[in-house]
């Protein structure tokens, strides 16, 4: 009995160590499997997020001169958060002015857009699109160009700001003489929506016009002085 007891104790300790080792090995395997599964799940979720939030793509953007009218065409794909497009034009590809706005159509398919510029500048007309998203972010397209060989007869223009405008439109023009002026705002289809009188001073004039009651869209501001001098420029109401 004295010689058998140590062997029993030794064997018991050996079996206990083997059980502990097996449990540790199984625990390690389970944890490894969970980590791998977790990584796979996170990776899969990230890939799904990428699929569900694909960026909007500008597939094409072109412009053409059709009988002294600028015709712009562009195509979007997977567009789901666009608010509108602001059309900007420049005569030198650097200082751009807003000349129109087109509301966005959101879907996951391709969408074709068009815009017509009925008042081409003499020479080069550079265009770009400013896509404005629902969250206020914006991005620009590439620049395209149309050449107009017609020379403007009377290049009497005024500067509008801000353009696009929300509540107030400011304009600056140079008047050769002090006179009364009729200030008119037309829709692009020719409907008169604002008409009022303002006083012009000799030289540079800075005036303001309240436009908060206008609906969002494209408009045309025309100022006709008492001596017949006429100024006009398009603008966008947001």
Short précis:
It is built from 1 helix and 15 strands, in the order H-E-E-E-E-E-E-E-E-E-E-E-E-E-E-E. By secondary structure, it is an alpha+beta fold. The chain has 3 domains: 1-53; 57-148, Sandwich (Immunoglobulin-like), CATH 2.60.40.10; 159-237, Immunoglobulin-like.
Describe what this molecule looks like in 3D.
There is one protein chain. This protein has 238 residues and is α+β, with helices and mostly antiparallel strands. The protein has one helix at residues 5-52; strands spanning 57-65, 70-79, 82-90, 97-103, 107-117, 123-133, 138-140, 144-148, 159-161, 168-175, 179-187, 192-200, 203-210, 217-225, 230-237. Strands 3, 4, 6, 7 and 8 form a five-stranded antiparallel β-sheet that branches. It has a four-stranded antiparallel β-sheet with strand order 12-11-14-15, with no helix packed on it. It has a three-stranded antiparallel β-sheet with strand order 1-2-5, with no helix packed on it. It starts with a helix and ends with a strand. Mean pLDDT is 78; it is low at 1-5 and 34-54.
User: What radius of gyration results from the CA coordinates?
Assistant: 35 Å
Helix-residue proportion = 10-25%
Compute the average pLDDT. Answer: 78
- Give the distance, in angstroms, between the N- and C-terminal Cα atoms: 102 Å
Strand content: over 45%
- By secondary-structure content and strand pairing, the structural class works out as alpha+beta
The CATH superfamily name of the largest domain is Immunoglobulins
Rough shape?
A: globular
CATH fold group of the largest domain:
Immunoglobulin-like
CATH architecture of the largest domain: Sandwich
What is the helix tally? Answer: 1
């Amino acid at each position: 009995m004295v010689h058998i007891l140590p062997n029993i104790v030794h064997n018991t300790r050996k079996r206990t160590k083997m059980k502990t080792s097996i449990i540790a090995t199984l625990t390690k395997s389970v944890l490894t499997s969970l980590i791998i599964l977790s990584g796979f799940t996170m990776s899969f979720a990230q890939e799904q997020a990428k699929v569900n939030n694909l960026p909007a793509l500008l597939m094409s953007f072109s412009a053409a001169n059709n009988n002294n009218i600028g015709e712009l065409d562009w195509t979007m794909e997977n567009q789901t958060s666009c608010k509108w497009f602001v059309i900007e034009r420049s005569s030198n590809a650097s200082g751009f002015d807003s000349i129109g706005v087109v509301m966005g159509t959101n879907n996951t398919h391709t969408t074709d857009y068009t815009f017509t510029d009925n008042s081409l500048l003499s020479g080069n007309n550079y265009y770009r699109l400013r896509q404005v998203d629902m969250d206020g972010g914006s991005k620009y397209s590439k620049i395209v160009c149309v050449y107009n060989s017609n020379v403007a007869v009377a290049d009497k223009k005024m500067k509008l700001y801000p353009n696009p405008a929300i509540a107030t439109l400011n304009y600056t023009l140079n008047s050769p003489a002090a006179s009364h002026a009729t200030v008119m705002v037309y829709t692009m289809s020719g409907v008169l929506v604002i008409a009022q009188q303002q006083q012009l001073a000799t030289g540079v004039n800075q005036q303001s016009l309240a436009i908060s009651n206008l609906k969002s869209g494209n408009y045309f501001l025309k100022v006709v002085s008492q001596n017949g001098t006429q100024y006009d420029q398009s603008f966008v109401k947001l």
